[in-house]
Amino acid sequence: MQSKWNSQGSLNNSAFAVYEAETQFPDSVNEQPINQFTHRAIYGVSKNLDGAGNPQTQFAIVRTGAYVGYGFGGFIYQRDNAVNLPTSGQAVFNGSAAGLRDFEGRGGLEYSTANVQIAVDFDAFDAGNGARSDGVKGVFTNRRVYNLEGTDITETVLARINDNNDANLDEIPEARFVIQPGVLDANGDLIGEINSHYVDANGALQQYETGKYYALMAGDDPNEIVGVVVLTNDAEFTDATVRDTSGFIVYRDPAPTP
Fold first, then answer.
1. Rounded alpha-carbon distances, angstroms, from residue 161 to 115, 171, 207, 242
2. Rounded to an integer, what distance in angstroms lies between the CA atom of residue 114 and that of residue 146?
3. CA distances to 111, 139, 166, 202 from 158, in Å
4. pLDDT given for residue 133 in this prediction
């Protein structure tokens, strides 16, 4: 239940806009206010614009914290031009991500941010039969979590993990793409697996999150990638699953002039 969206500022150094659904809406007859379910949206646009001022890529994510289950929501990402992919060489892209964390088993919403780097080897595997053979490596680092008021609650998240899993983490584990063939097609679509791990107090490797990434390469070089990752974990709560849906835009910027 919501009618329109109000700007709530930005996340991750103003790279991504945050919107809140209207909290109340009046009855059309008696004007009595009706409380609306909590919804938030994150919208990201490329810094690269065409001649008409349109962004090369963009994404949007909507989630709600008004249900004990995940509730309603979704995401979309797109590019507004073609892409030309090389058949050899390598490329590295850098940028950032912003997301929404919702829960299966409890209500509420949280924000997330991260730094992102993606590297592509355009002839990493011997695919054969004319298929693309690209290898794609991606990593999400410096991951932070915030409540809806914008307060950094990363330490609270770490305490949840440590207390429930006999761990001693001082940062949220890095999330990494699973390197495998067949994740990039000739249209520049990227779909693959992403996960994260940590070492517990006994020195054993433990899985923190599993999920998928969905992305598009864009530009003639190509010069950027837009996408969304969806990660879930059962490590923070004994009675709920956490889902992090984060959008990202990364750029293949030229090296700075010495």
1. 21, 10, 12, 12
2. 12
3. 15, 19, 12, 17
4. 74
Residue type at position 155? E
Per residue in 200-216, pLDDT (tens digit) is 888 999 999 999 999 99
d(C-alpha 24, C-alpha 5), whole Å: 11
Pairing of strands 224-233, 39-45: unpaired
Pick the closest to residue 122 from 93, 97, 82 (CA basis): 93
Return the SS3 of 141: strand
Using DSSP, state whether 6 is helix, strand or coil: strand
Tell me how many helices (H) and strands (E) the chain has.
1, 15
The sign one gets for the Cα dihedral 62, 48, 145, 178 is positive
* SS3 label, residue 148: coil
